[in-house]
């Protein structure tokens, strides 16, 4: 049927492989069963009395929970008795040239100096970048007392430290671009994302975006914080501009594409996806987005049509197997399955026909066959199943072919409760003889087994097998017949 | 379980103190708000809070009603609302201003307080400010950094750490990790040695060091000797493998949340599911948690037989004996009986699920991938998995394992598998692929980098020297050079000889003896060598960032020196914890695992999804 979630299916989620075994599964399983029986048999004694909280139950329902067992022993909260006094200065990592902390000295000032000479900052005091001089600068303009009134004297390092410790701080005094960047770099060096983001918020408010973007290009860590922050607060437009300014067009396209998830109405979503087609995706992704648009467009048409047909009661298939969910927004393969289920045999021209979907979305032969087989087997349309594998050669002889091994086909059919008559046709087609016999035994296809042993001229096995079938059955008679056939030349 | 078990392992420190500290601080915060108040709790914070305080405690401190945060206008009689918020993701929290503004529109003015745990972020305060409700809402922090989940497991309960740091490149939790270490250091330290590997570990160490320097120092008897910090991306293969140790398997199938699991009716053989705490208090669980799943049945049947015998004793007892039996033994037996039937039920249910899923074939494919054999067969297995629309996360997991072990996929395979994946599970997974690529979990081989597996193995590295050094016992050690791949892989694969899971000889038993988890092997090697000497080639492939520092402690060898704290930044799996417990038993050490969260392949990959609005 139509699956709500693609991973929830059980209709052909079946095993070609042998069952889960670690060592000797049967033994373990029986042992487990025995243990269970043993334990259950003594249950009666136990359940006479109240169920106690031997097993701790946990809930948060607003009702008192009395069962939390960590319970407080009135231990001293003062922490441990004092031991010997030692020098406990905390060691730095010495072998760490790659740590940003250690390399911070060169990066900041050299960066600014480089930039300063390139032009745009030349109007500033020549002394910037040198903090010792810069700190005196305000005092030249204003009396010290007045200055102290509203500007605190904290250096970028002190400011960052105060921010980390949750103390009062002020970012207002970082007004020149250089000061702002020093502050940002200091925050980055402190490895504290919280502070980095706080500084970025300040820079966002106090710098034009062009300048901020330009400075972020060379600051990868700050940039990633900024992008994450914008994502979280949902500033889509600004993000688009940021990606554009950095030439990260694929990121930009994907981010805009992501927004389709927020569009609930299917028609609006389709239009949104159509709009996405013009975004600069990578060539591969562009194809996928095109598929996405085409798919939803088709689904809308199919859904409208089928809903109408279903409610009018015109088609038997919908009466017999009412739809469980809408096909909208389902994956391509689920749509194909749906189409094979409800629209099998429609002409290639219609949007809802399996052949059309297969062609439009370039579905591989193997994938098509698997999906189609699942759908037709579910409907017990064994004739259709047969037709899937039948090919005619130029002489007009028919032959069964499959892009996947027939043992897999058998498996899928069996999971869909195919009758033995159908199963054995496919078991017969399995090439590997051992595999054929084991499958035949698993699914009780007696004829296959008997014929195979006959063809192998394996008299012994046939005799063994005779012991396994009922005496009055037709299989038994068949084996008897073969064994008594004097024409056969047995190998044993 | 190991042949040579050292019986002199030291006692673990008492971590219930951490809970007490957290609880005391919460009470303090509540008392800061006199009068009756309602408490709104973010869903993610509920289970951790449950481990710290119960309803009675909260009621004692004037908490009127408890609500789950639902991001809709608050209907509450109390005029004062304390709102506990587990802050992130910000997108959920974003709706809080609407709540306040809705209140205002009704002409109600209530006082709101947001208590952030474990810390507040400037970004959130900024948001309150921008929304014009900064004064109406006040904020505080509940420094609840560490939640002891068991005697030897402490969690920061930050599942978002992995995505935030490794995918988004956001370092917001680095200081949190540093603060957690600082807390442990000040309660159980001073630690004598710190080893680490990974960029984040290094930053967390720096943050911790700074906090130690800022704070006052107290001299104490150390209870923990050494510390090992490791970034999750040093070893991404291990968490992506299927878990086969009991506790790991339970986590993979039923999902253990905050040390607690909900067993479905299928397990309990009744009509309702029950929540069970899984920790060392559960005597039955404690004996099987670290065992390979195949060994669990035998153990449980033995237990069941013993139990039967114990019950049978009562036949033929006289009244007095019966009385003693009831008062002394019955309660214990009853408890054991309950636990036993629970774990038997769980084993049975897991067995059924795994059989349905062709677990054996899946494991075979995983092992082939790790060994680099029969890659084409593996690819067609994965393809079929995708074609049949079997579990999306499983398909993704196999693709990632393929990419990690093969230095990326051949462009042709990448394109074809991606195409089939999108067809089967939805085209919006384009976004997921982009994330996986960004993180280096699923990538295309670069043009020119078209070495076959054999070439890369034989030609490019297999540094005999390193291999020889890291070799331990009979294990074959293979070292892959992964060249450009951002997440390099060094793999420690077992030779093909039979591995007796009843008597595990090394940590590889957690993966059926097939290979040793890299994370744990590194820890073992570094502890053995007391540093990184001799492992240069390995760390070079793991992108370096290794460090080892020694504190200035006296050289006194105490028991605490044999207690090792291992911190995983980005999460660790129960299998790794089992492996470390094994290592501890072998070497007479005790490991304490501190992790940002307990993870497994599904959690790790689900955090990469972007396909919801």
Estimated share of beta-strand residues of chain B: 5-15%
Distance between the termini of chain A: 50 Å
For the sheet with most strands of chain A, the description reads:
2 strands, antiparallel
Number of strands of chain B: 17
Strand order of the largest sheet of chain A: 1-2
* CA-based gyration radius of chain B: 26 Å
Strand content of chain A: under 5%
How many extended strands of chain A?
Answer: 2
Number of H- or I-type helical stretches of chain A: 26
Largest sheet of chain B: 7 strands, mixed
Q: In terms of quaternary structure, what is this? A: heterodimer
Stretches of chain B where pLDDT is under 50 for at least 5 consecutive residues are: 83-92, 449-491
Q: Looking at the structure, what is the overall shape of chain A? A: elongated
Structural class of chain B: alpha/beta
Give the N-terminus to C-terminus distance of chain B in angstroms.
49 Å
Shape of chain B: globular
Query: Could you say which structural class the secondary elements and strand pairing of chain A correspond to?
Result: mainly alpha
Low-confidence stretches of chain A: 1-24, 48-88, 96-140
SSE layout:
The complex is a heterodimer of chains A (about 500) and B (about 625).
Chain A: H1 25-41, H2 43-47, H3 100-117, H4 131-134, H5 137-141, H6 144-150, H7 156-164, H8 177-189, H9 193-206, H10 209-217, H11 220-233, H12 236-245, H13 249-258, H14 266-276, H15 283-312, H16 316-320, H17 332-342, H18 354-360, H19 365-378, H20 382-389, E1 390-392, E2 398-400, H21 406-415, H22 420-429, H23 433-442, H24 446-456, H25 459-466, H26 474-483
Antiparallel strand pairs in A: 1-2
Chain B: H1 16-31, E1 37-41, H2 43-52, H3 55-60, E2 63-68, E3 80-85, H4 90-93, H5 96-105, E4 111-116, H6 122-130, E5 137-141, E6 147-150, E7 153-155, H7 161-167, H8 174-188, E8 193-197, H9 199-214, E9 226-231, H10 237-240, H11 246-254, E10 260-263, H12 265-268, E11 274-277, H13 283-288, H14 293-312, H15 319-356, H16 359-371, H17 375-387, H18 392-405, H19 411-425, H20 430-439, H21 453-460, H22 464-470, E12 478-479, E13 490-493, E14 515-516, H23 518-529, H24 536-541, E15 546-550, E16 563-569, H25 574-587, E17 590-595, H26 601-606
Parallel strand pairs in B: 1-2, 1-3, 3-4, 4-5, 7-17, 8-9, 9-16, 16-17
Antiparallel strand pairs in B: 6-7, 8-15, 10-11, 12-13, 13-14
Helix pairs in contact in B: 8-9, 14-15, 16-17, 16-18, 17-18, 17-19
């Amino acid at each position: 049927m139509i699956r709500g979630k693609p991973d929830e299916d059980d209709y052909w989620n079946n095993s070609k492989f042998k069952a889960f075994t670690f060592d000797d599964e049967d033994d373990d399983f029986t042992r487990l069963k025995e243990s269970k029986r043993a334990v259950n048999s003594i249950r009666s004694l136990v359940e006479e009395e109240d169920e106690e909280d031997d097993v701790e139950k946990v809930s948060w329902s607003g009702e008192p929970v009395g069962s939390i067992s960590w319970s407080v022993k009135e231990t001293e909260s003062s922490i441990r008795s004092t031991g010997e006094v030692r020098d406990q200065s905390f060691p730095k990592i010495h072998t760490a040239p790659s740590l940003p902390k250690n390399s911070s000295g060169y990066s900041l000032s050299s960066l600014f100096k480089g930039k300063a000479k390139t032009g745009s900052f030349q109007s500033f005091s020549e002394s910037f970048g040198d903090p010792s001089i810069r700190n005196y600068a305000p005092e030249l303009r204003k009396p010290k007392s007045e200055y102290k009134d509203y500007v605190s004297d904290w250096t970028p390092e002190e400011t960052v430290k105060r921010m980390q410790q949750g103390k009062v701080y002020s970012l207002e005094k970082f007004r020149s671009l250089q000061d702002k960047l020093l502050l940002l770099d200091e925050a980055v060096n402190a490895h504290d994302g919280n502070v980095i983001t706080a500084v970025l918020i300040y820079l966002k408010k106090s710098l034009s975006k062009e300048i901020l973007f330009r400075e972020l290009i060379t600051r990868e860590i700050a940039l990633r914080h900024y992008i994450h922050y914008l994502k979280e607060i949902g500033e889509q437009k600004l993000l688009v501009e940021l990606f554009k300014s950095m030439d990260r067009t694929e990121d930009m396209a994907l981010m805009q594409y992501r927004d389709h998830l927020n569009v609930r109405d299917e028609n609006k979503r389709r239009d949104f996806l159509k709009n996405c087609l013009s975004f600069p995706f990578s060539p591969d992704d562009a194809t996928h987005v095109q598929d996405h648009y085409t798919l939803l467009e088709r689904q809308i048409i199919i859904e409208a049509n089928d809903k109408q047909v279903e409610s009018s009661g015109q088609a038997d298939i919908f009466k017999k197997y009412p739809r469980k969910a809408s096909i909208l927004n389902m994956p391509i393969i689920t749509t194909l399955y749906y189409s094979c289920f409800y629209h099998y045999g429609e002409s290639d021209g219609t949007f809802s026909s399996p052949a059309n979907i297969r062609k439009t979305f370039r579905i591989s032969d193997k994938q098509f066959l698997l999906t189609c087989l699942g759908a037709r087997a579910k409907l017990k349309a064994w004739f259709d199943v047969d037709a899937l594998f039948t090919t005619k050669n130029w002489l007009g002889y028919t032959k069964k072919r499959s892009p996947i091994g027939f043992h897999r086909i058998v498996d899928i059919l069996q999971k869909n409760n195919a009758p033995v008559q159908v199963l054995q046709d496919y078991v017969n087609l399995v090439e590997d003889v051992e595999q054929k016999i084991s499958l035949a035994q698993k699914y009780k296809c007696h004829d296959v087994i008997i014929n195979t042993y006959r063809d192998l001229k394996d008299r012994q096995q046939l005799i063994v097998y005779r012991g396994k079938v009922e005496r009055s059955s037709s299989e038994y008679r068949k084996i008897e017949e073969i064994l008594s056939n004097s024409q056969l030349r047995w190998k044993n | 379980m190991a042949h040579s078990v050292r019986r002199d392992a030291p006692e673990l420190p008492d971590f219930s103190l951490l809970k007490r500290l957290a609880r005391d601080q919460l009470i303090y915060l509540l008392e800061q708000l006199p009068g009756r108040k309602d408490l709104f709790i973010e869903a993610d914070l509920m289970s951790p809070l449950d481990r710290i305080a119960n309803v009675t405690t909260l009621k004692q401190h004037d908490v009127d009603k408890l609500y789950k945060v639902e991001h809709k206008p608050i209907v509450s009689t109390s005029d004062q609302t304390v709102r506990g918020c587990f802050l992130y993701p910000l997108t959920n929290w974003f709706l809080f201003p609407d709540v306040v503004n809705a209140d205002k529109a009704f002409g109600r003015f209530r006082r709101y307080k947001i208590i952030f745990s474990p810390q507040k972020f400037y970004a959130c305060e900024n948001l309150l400010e921008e929304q014009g409700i900064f004064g109406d809402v006040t904020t505080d922090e509940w420094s609840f950094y560490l939640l002891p989940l068991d005697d030897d497991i402490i969690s920061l309960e930050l599942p978002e750490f992995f995505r935030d740091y490794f995918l988004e490149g956001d370092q917001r939790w680095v200081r949190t990790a540093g603060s957690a270490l600082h807390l442990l250091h000040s309660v159980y330290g001073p630690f004598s040695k710190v080893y680490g590997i990974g960029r984040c570990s290094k930053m967390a160490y720096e943050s911790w060091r700074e906090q130690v320097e800022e704070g006052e120092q107290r001299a104490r008897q150390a209870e923990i000797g050494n510390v090992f910090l490791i970034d999750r991306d040093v070893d991404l293969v291990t968490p992506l493998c299927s878990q086969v140790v009991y506790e790991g398997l339970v986590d993979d199938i039923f999902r253990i949340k905050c040390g607690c699991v909900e067993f479905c009716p299928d397990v309990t053989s009744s009509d309702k599911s029950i929540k069970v705490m899984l920790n060392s208090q559960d005597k039955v669980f404690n004996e099987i948690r670290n065992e390979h799943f195949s060994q669990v049945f035998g153990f449980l049947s033995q237990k069941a037989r013993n139990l039967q015998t114990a019950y049978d004793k009562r036949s033929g007892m006289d009244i007095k004996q019966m009385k003693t039996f009831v008062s002394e033994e019955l309660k214990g037996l009853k408890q054991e009986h309950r636990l036993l039937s629970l774990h038997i039920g769980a084993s049975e249910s897991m067995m059924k699920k795994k059989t349905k899923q062709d677990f054996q074939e899946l494991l075979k494919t995983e092992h082939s991938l790790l060994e680099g054999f029969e890659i084409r067969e593996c690819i067609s297995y994965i393809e079929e998995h995708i074609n049949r629309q079997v579990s999306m996360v499983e398909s993704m997991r196999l693709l990632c394992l393929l990419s990690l072990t093969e230095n990326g996929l051949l462009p042709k395979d990448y394109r074809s598998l991606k195409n089939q994946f999108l067809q089967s599970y939805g085209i919006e997974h384009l976004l997921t692929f982009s994330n996986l690529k960004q993180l280096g979990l699923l990538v295309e081989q670069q043009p020119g980098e078209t070495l076959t597996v054999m070439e890369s193995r034989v030609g490019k590295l297999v540094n005999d020297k390193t291999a020889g050094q890291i070799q331990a016992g009979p294990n074959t050690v293979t070292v892959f050079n992964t060249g450009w791949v951002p997440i390099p892989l060094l793999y420690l694969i077992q030779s093909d000889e039979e591995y007796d899971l009843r008597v595990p000889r090394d940590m590889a038993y957690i993966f059926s003896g097939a290979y040793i988890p890299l994370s744990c092997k590194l820890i073992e090697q570094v502890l053995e060598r007391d540093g990184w000497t001799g492992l240069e080639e390995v760390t070079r492939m793991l992108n370096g960032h290794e460090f080892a520092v020694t504190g200035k402690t006296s050289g006194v060898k105490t028991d605490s020196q044999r207690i090792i704290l291992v911190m995983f930044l980005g999460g660790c799996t129960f299998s790794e914890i089992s492996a470390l417990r094994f290592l501890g038993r072998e070497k007479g050490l005790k490991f304490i695992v501190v992790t940002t969260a307990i993870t497994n392949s599904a959690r790790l990959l689900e955090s990469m999804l972007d396909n919801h609005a």
